[in-house]
Amino acid sequence: VLALANQKGGVGKTTTAVNLSAYLAARGYQILLIDIDPQGNATSSLGVDKESCDLSIYDVLNDRLPLLDAVVPAGQDLPRLAIVPSTSVLLGAETEAALTTADERERRLAEALTTLPRGFYDLVIVDCPPSLGLLTLNALTAAEGVIIPIQCEFLALEGLAQLANNIELVKRTFNQRLDILGVLLTMYDGRTRLSAQVADEVRRFFPNRLFETAIPRGVHLAEAPSYGQSILHYDPASRGALAYSAVADETLARLHLVAPVPVAAEVLR
Ligand code: ATP
Ligand code: MG
After folding, report:
1. Which residue's CA lies nearest to atom 18 of ligand 1?
2. What tens digit of pLDDT does each residue of 10-23 get?
3. Is 103 exposed, middle or buried (0-12, 13-18, 19+ CB in 10 A)?
4. pTM of the predicted model, to two decimals?
5. Is the shortest distance between the CB of 15 and ligand 1 below 6 Å?
């Protein structure tokens, strides 16, 4: 399980969750994308009609319905990608409120994931809301890896210490397996000094965690969701598409889901 988390809004969590999921599914992995954000942006970005969904992630968290009952297909283009939709801001708020008093309130998502048949999905990706509330806490408690998207802008690092502390706290209290899988620079503009500065600071703040690939700012990435498509189908030749494809490969390598290329001993000598 991987969670896309950053309490800062609009940094590219959903864009990354959707496009990373799409590329991993296209590589042949069975992917389940869980939209735990009441805004439901991941759900609509993939063209899933919220009105037509009977169940959402909130039914799973509130009423402990089996996770599989809420799964909907992402569409014909991506047969290996399925989604658990988020359908209503109201239900999201209700869930956040209900969980406040629930037993083991941080474990609802983790519990729901145990109801999946073993090996049914190769990877589960969770798109978090822009807060450190109970929904994000559920995602972090269920995850082995967090990917933190960081928008290359002034004040990009604001709040990162708080996020890092929270991750550390969740790790100590609820979920020892949790680790930061990677930090991803988004809306990167190689021509500006600001982007380079943010990259340097992030590298210092999260040594060895920064993805080599940065996601460039690109209008196609912003347009694709309005067509209900991932960038893989909307414009696979765009720079944004190539970047997300590379991030998918880096993710697989970090998860050791692909064998690293063996280096012959002779070459090393
Ligand atoms: P929220 O915190 O509200 O959930 P988020 O962190 O999920 O936001 P996104 O929704 O992915 O962020 O992105 C915010 C906006 O920026 C969206 O309109 C999205 O289309 C756009 N966007 C994301 N990445 C890029 C990019 N690399 N280039 C251009 N636009 C982008
Ligand atoms: Mg989002």
Report:
1. 222
2. 999 999 999 999 99
3. exposed
4. 0.94
5. yes
